[in-house]
Amino acid sequence: MSHLSRPGALFLAGFALHVLAPFSCSAAAPAPLWQDEFNTDGPPDPAKWDYERGFVRNEELQWYQPENAVCKGGFLVIEARREKKPNPEYKAGGSGWKNRPEIEVTSACLITKGKREFQYGRFEMRARIDTRLGSWPAFWTLGVNREWPSNGEIDIMEYYRNILLANVAWGTDQRWKAKWDSVRTPLEKLGGPEWSRQFHVWRMDWDEEAIRLSVDDRLLNETLLKDAVNPDGFCPFRQPHYLLLNQAIGGQSGGDPSKLEYPVRFEVDWVRVYPRP
């Protein structure tokens, strides 16, 4: 057995620390502030998720109900399916697009509103989406204060009519009319049908300066917060937001769903929220 002098031992110890430092615990990726891995079969965790219910927005075809979201085999599956039944909120002689006598399609929209809200951080989702005409999945956020769009909307993932969108929206002088910073990427530029058969990771990096939206480490959109301000000077992205996961059908933007075969599935492997990078 060889013996080292003290200077030699100190040199080797320092060398070892230098080489091994990148692999030390201090260099490990930060733990999520909040996450759902969907590893328990059954309904989504009620401590983390609530639901939108009924006909909600954009003249969409689906009726939202919790039953269309289930965790199975390590995935959250939000399933739109053809399901005809009476609309319990229908009023004879009433008007408006929500006042339909019948429900034709059901789906689900999960929200963290009232459970957990976030201001700044890294937000990630690994998921597979249905890219057929009429399918309109989204992973997005809404601000907790003020009505839309003055509360602020961030579309980390939105897809319809062969386009992947990365959007940020805020208020204007006209009620319910948004100012959009939107980047639209055609499916063909992403890889076409083969791309849509695979799982992908969507990410938002949000701090005091900007919102950056990416897919598979490809930056899609960057919005500076100094530019995303309502006419009264309020920046809706300097307040907490809650998360939404939904599978919509048709409506104002989703495309004609008349030839769509059901079910339509939005499959989510995990959702994670990290501290700011």
Average pLDDT reading = 92
Oligomer: single chain
Contiguous uncertain segments of 5+ residues: 1-26
Figure out the total of helices.
3
> What structural category do the secondary elements indicate?
mainly beta
Summarize the amount of helix as a percent range.
Answer: under 10%
CATH topology label: Jelly Rolls
Gross morphology: globular
Q: What is the total tally of β strands?
A: 17
SSE run: HEEEEEEEEEEEEHHEEEEE
CATH architecture annotation name: Sandwich
Radius of gyration: 23 Å
Q: What is the CATH C-level name?
A: Mainly Beta
Largest sheet: 10 strands, mixed
- Strand % is 35-45%
C-alpha termini separation = 47 Å
Number of domains: 1
Would you summarize the structure shown here?
The protein is mainly beta. 9% of the residues lie in helices and 42% in strands. Strands 1, 3, 4, 5, 6, 8, 13, 14, 15 and 17 form a ten-stranded mixed beta sheet that branches.
What does this structure look like?
With 277 residues, the chain is mainly beta. It has a single domain (34-274), classed as Sandwich (Jelly Rolls). The protein has helices at residues 6-20, 187-190, 192-196; strands at 34-36, 50-51, 62-64, 69-72, 75-86, 102-107, 109-111, 121-128, 135-143, 153-160, 163-171, 178-186, 200-206, 210-215, 218-224, 241-249, 264-274. Strands 1, 3, 4, 5, 6, 8, 13, 14, 15 and 17 form a 10-stranded mixed sheet that branches. Strand 13 and strand 14 form a beta hairpin.
